[in-house]
Structures are given as C-alpha cells and as structure tokens.
Amino acid sequence: MNHRYCALGLDIVASFALPGLWRVNGAATGREIEIDLGAVPLRLHDPVCDRPLLQIDASGAALFRVPGIARYYLRDRRRITIELAAGAAFDRALEFLKGTPLALLCHQWGLTPFDAVSVTHDEGALLLAGGPGRGKSTLALALAARSSRLMSDGLCALEVLDSAAPVIWPAFPEVKAWRDSLEALNIAVPGEPNAGGRYKLPAESWFEPEPRPVAAVISLQPARGGVAERVTRRRGALAFETLMNLQNLPDAGRGLSPGAKPIEAIGRLAAQAAVHEVWYPQGLDRLDALPDWLLARLDLGGEGRYA
To answer: d(Cα 120, Cα 138) in Å, to the nearest integer?
Structure first.
C-alpha cells in the first residue's frame, strides 16, 4: 500500500507512513517523487559539489549525510533513498528528510525553497523571516488565534508561473515552539521536547494545504537597546536582497535549478509582493496585542497586493 502526501509543491509517494506530512488521496502538483529505504553509497564519484555533509554530481544526483542518523540519496529528481545509521530511530531521520533533501528536490523542480514561517492572511500568505530566536513560530501561533492558518514552520517553497502571481506552497502541518510561548498563548504543552528543547505541536486542524499568493514578507528584527518599534517597507534592490537571503541552499541551488530560475522568481516576488522590515515589541506579556499591532502597520495595498 502506498502512502501519498503533498509538501513544498511536491507529490510524495512512500510504501510506509511518513508522520508529520500532509496526507492526500492523489496527485496535487504533477511533480511526483518516491521515497524508499535501502542501501545508499558512502560517497559520489566525481562530485561537482563536495562538502562535509553534501555531495552533488554533474547529473544532479545528491548525497546528504547526517552522522549517526541517516544518508539520503537523491537521483533523477524523482527518488530519495534513505539508509538509516546503525541504531538510529526513523523519526529522527524523518526530521532531517523534511529539510535539506526535500529542499534540494525543490531546486531540481524549479521551485525556490525559502527559510520562512508562513501563515495565511485573507486570500494570501504572510512570510515571517529572521534569524533564530526572532519569534517567528510564536508569532505564527499568535496570528492563528486571529484566524490565520499555518502553511509552514521553517521551510516553504516559492513557485512563479508566467501568467500568475508568485505563490507559496505549504510544507508540514506542525509547529515547534518553546514552552513559555505555548503557555503564554494558553496552548497545552504536548509530550516531551525535541533535542533542541522545543515542543512539536500538531497543526492538522488549522493547516492550509493549498498554495497562496504572497501578500507580504516580514523580516523580523527585535526592538532592543532603544530601537524604536516600527515597520518599514523595503523596495527595489533592498526588497530583492531581503528575499535572496531567504533561500535555502542557494549555492547548491545554482547547480540544480533549471536556468536562472531562483533569481527570476525572487525578482518577480520582489516586484510584486510587499516586503517589510519589522522592529517589533518584545516580551511574551505583549503577545496578545502583537498580531493587531503588526497587521495594522503592514502596507498591503497598491502594487504589493497579489499584483
């Protein structure tokens, strides 16, 4: 029996269950990939990209290694084979599968993987970006309390079609958050934390599985040390720079993506979406007011709204 899922604009088929992915009944995107378990080479011959954990050869085949967890072998842009390390748990291997291996396949299919949390807003998507500890997942949970739906928590995929606005494909129906964030939002703390200390919160009931046009990109900056709380619209080259910095595996992507796809896609998005830099209120005691404070200051009109 095959299990079918959709994530990051890819139709994923496996002969075994993949917990944490969005289950579907049939093809949703036309970009089908198969995932199986089996023997994986230790190294690729004559790689054109050779890093400690990642190799890519001239054909586009890729080998991603996570010591003590698994090796992932990608080929023909349609197959991922996973070989578990001795004694490794499959759920740990699955967590790494949701990162680099699927991001590499996005590049091969002409999609641009972004490091961003994304939620719905009206008929579009808000992308929340910024470094670790900026509160992206916490803000997504707070926005969900205002009727937003989750699209991704850390990785999503941009697709640009010739005749349509750029869209974001959702990833996985789950959020990872710190205990104090969950408690501040009156959300029950689920189970035990992961190795990094965060808790995984299932989000199937408030997940949006369909792609949405990008309403706004929000680069979060902490308002500390006397920095005033504010929202600034970035345009032109500054908007393009902000979006370029969201790419997942940009160096590897240049060798895997057809043509100049990522640069073209990001250029279109920079021209058509509202890109903001946000110095926002800090402190969980202000979390209830943060979504309203932010949404009231976003410039979603004019050329920045699903143009």
So the answer is: 15
DSSP state for residue 303 in the 8-state scheme: G
172 and 285 fall within a common domain: yes
Backbone angles phi, psi at 262, to 5 degrees: -60, -45
pLDDT of 303 over the 50 cut: no
Pairing of strands 156-159, 112-114: antiparallel
CA pair distance 34, 116, nearest whole angstrom: 25
Assess contact for 148 and 104: CB atoms under 8 A: no
Query: Do 36 and 128 sit in the same domain of this protein?
Result: no
262 alpha-carbon distance from chain centroid:
15
73 in the same domain as 37:
yes
Q: How many domains does the chain have?
A: 2
The answer on 59 and 160 residing in a single domain is no
Mean pLDDT of 278-301: 82
Rounded to a whole number of angstroms, the CA Rg of the chain reads 19
Query: 16 is in which domain, residue-wise?
Result: 3-109
Contact present, 242 and 275 (Cβ < 8 Å) = yes
Written as one letter, the residue type at 121 is H
132 and 47 part of one domain: no
Predicted local distance difference test score (pLDDT) of residue 140 = 94
Local structure of 193: helix, strand or coil: coil
Residue 305 has pLDDT above 50, yes or no: no
DSSP codes joined into one string, 94-133: HHHHTTHHHHHHHHHTT-EEE--EEEEETTEEEEEE-STT
CA distance 148 to 159: 21
